[in-house]
Amino acid sequence: MRPEILNPLFAEVEALKGVGPGITKALARLDLKRAIDLVYHLPTGTIDRVRAPHASQALLGRIVVLDVTPVEVRAGSGKAPLRIFARDGDDNTLTLTFFNNPAWAKRQLPLHQKRTVIGKLDAYGQEWQIVHPEVIDLVMASEVALREPVYGLTEGISNKRMRELALAALERVPQLAEWIEPSLLGRERWPAWRAGLAEAHSDPNSTLPRKRLAYDEIFANQLALMLLRQVARRKRGVPLQGDGRLSGKLQLPYRLTNAQQRVIGEIRGDMAQDKPMLRLLQGDVGSGKTLVALLAMLEAVEAGAQAAMLAPTEILARQHQATLQRQCEAIGVRIAILTGREKGRTRESVLMGLADGSIDILIGTHAIFQQHVAYKKLGLIVIDEQHRFGVSQRLLLSEKAEHPPHLLAMTATPIPRTLTLTHYGEMDVSRIDEMPPGRTPVETLVISDQKLGDVIDGLGRHLAAGGQAYWVCPLVEESEAIDAAAAEDRARLLRCRFGEDRVGLVHGRMKGADKDDVMASFANGDLGVLVATTVIEVGVDVPNSSLIIVEGAERFGLAQLHQLRGRVGRGAAASRCILLRGQQLSETGRARLALMRETNDGFRIAEEDLRLRGPGEILGTRQSGEQAFKVASQEDVAELAPVAQGDARLLLDRDGGLASERGQAARLCLYLFERDAAVGLLRSG
Ligand code: ADP
Ligand code: MG
After folding, report:
1. Any idea which ligand is nearest the CA of 282?
2. Where would I find the Helicase C-terminal domain in this sequence (predicted)?
3. Same domain, 24 and 100
């Protein structure tokens, strides 16, 4: 439960003075529901006030600072406002209008005495008007700040109102003990949390307070991940050490790359420990992760345990099985598959084999972790394409068991280092940074879709020479049905040209079994062209296919394009990727496609994608709702996440229960950023 001291901050906005249902509704549109949301709704910049000698058309609607001399007071009767007429420096008459507090207004604006007024200049009939101006003594006028913090607004809330609300919310900010390592705080010259918040609201352009607040947020993220790690590794795992009797018999037509060798070494090192492994394996498409996974699984089997490999889609699960089955059978390792499609007898026999230990390796989709799937001795879980599984799912996997299995997560999405930190910070990272030898880099062309006819002609020549090709149609609409229809149209066109039986189609609306059938006929060469929506994005391996055409390429993320391009260039033939672009291409759109043409470096592409589109797209977490940062910018994260990780680690090393004074403060920081679940982990342990 959240500590009491934070309750005022987490109160609904209605609790603030003068906030009724109208404002509440308006604030909700900005997702500002509680005082703390307002506190962290930082101004984004400043508005400039204009110091002017007199009112003029050009200043209409702007915030002006004018010297005026009041000449007449017209008191309001009934509900009519008080009006004070004044002359500006050009002898215009200006109406200063007050709907409330007339006595105060009259005192502020005595007749025939020059004053400075500040407010938004309106036209009222023929006259200039300022409603509720701020009034300042001339003496002070030179000190009028010509800048004012501006907030993100919505209809029904003025900037002034938003600022008042922010200030009211700020009053609820309690004094809290410091959670940042004192030496870091000193070195960076950061203000304390409370002072930092106040300063960020009063001076949006000052960088130190903002940095500090960004750091808090990143620190909470890192601390939560480190707690996750602590919990995941608190239970004893089972050390697994192979003797090479199986892996030694593998018949490989090639040698491991140095990178593969290094990485498998790291994995074996982890598996030999009695702490469960938590390792993320990153390697670009085609870098040979499957073999690494197999070696890790054989390590487990040699040590008398079972291994399970989790794939994100059925197609991928079947492909893994097909690849691994051959190798496993040759060395007497028993492998099985379990997806939503295995039913009845087949399913029963798999379940039995898992329970009695006659199955060594299980490949499958998430079906392999359903309730009634019991393993005799599960020692290792491999998750392929990790980015589709969130933090909570990872935790679930290890929480179930008394002795959690070792966990190896693999991803072909090159994840920029900063994102690795903020999303997989609890894991150790291995990278395969080297491609198997003998690959010819894929040649990438960007072609206008006006030349569709030429491209189809080219495809014809490619097919005539015995080649195969992917044709990718984008997911454009929100509706899969419409996208599927577009893909069907394209398939129809290509079938007219190349023949009914040479063109296959897979899309997201098809049943798994049907998709598999089409994939299978493409893989065995019956089909020349595979028309697909992005379902082929991940992992599919057909080495004879050396051409990929991507329609509407500008609509894809760069990382996605890179994945798609990774479908080709797997065989000996020189490969090509044709990016068909639309007519209306923005400047960035052009730059992005140019980058694809220029580089094959997945990490460079990922960094660029991160810069252009934000983390949700790369990690595929937009739907799963893993939260993004509120205060911290991408640059802040890049700069501060490594620092925060070190800080969080150090704190937990010294004080794993977060019981010390600083530990207690850090708990508050977790609550502030709603990492309640992370604190919960602490309790349960
Ligand atoms: P990914 O990392 O994308 O999962 P794969 O494991 O599918 O890559 O490997 C891509 C291709 O490279 C496969 O056909 C595989 O047999 C081959 N391969 C893997 N390791 C090597 C190696 N050391 N030398 C040559 N080819 C390799
Ligand atoms: Mg793979």
Report:
1. 1
2. 455-611
3. no
What is the atom index within ligand 1 of the atom nearest the CA of 255? 23
Residue 51 to residues 56, 59, 135, 145, 202: CA-CA distances in angstroms? 12, 10, 14, 10, 21
- Please tell me the distance from the alpha carbon of residue 43 to that of residue 622, in angstroms, as a whole number: 25
Total structural domains within the chain: 4
Report the mean per-residue pLDDT for the chain: 87
Two tokens, residue 340: 């939503």
Which contacts qualify for 662-665: CB closer than 8 Å, 24 or more apart? 662/177, 662/178, 662/179, 664/177, 665/176, 665/177, 665/178, 665/179
Q: Could you tell me the pTM of the whole model?
A: 0.68
What mean pLDDT is predicted for residues 631-649?
90
Task: Return the percent helix, strand and coil in the chain, to nearest 5.
Answer: 45, 20, 35
| 85 Cα: distance to centroid of ligand 1 (angstroms) | 83
Range of the domain at 576: 442-599
| Among 257-261, 290-294, 626-630, the least confident range | 626-630
What's the confidence (pLDDT) of residue 533?
Answer: 83
What pLDDT shows up at residue 623? Answer: 34
Q: Is the pLDDT of residue 121 over 80?
A: yes
Q: Within this chain, do residues 551 and 454 fall inside the same structural domain, yes or no?
A: yes
Looking at the structure, tell me whether residues 268 and 377 fall in a common domain. Answer: yes
Instruction: Identify which of 438, 683, 671, 452 has the alpha carbon closest to the alpha carbon of residue 550.
Output: 452
Ligand 1 neighbours (beta carbon < 6 A): 254-257, 260, 283, 285-291, 412, 436, 541, 570
Percentage of the chain beyond pLDDT 90 is 51
* Residue 419: predicted pLDDT: 77
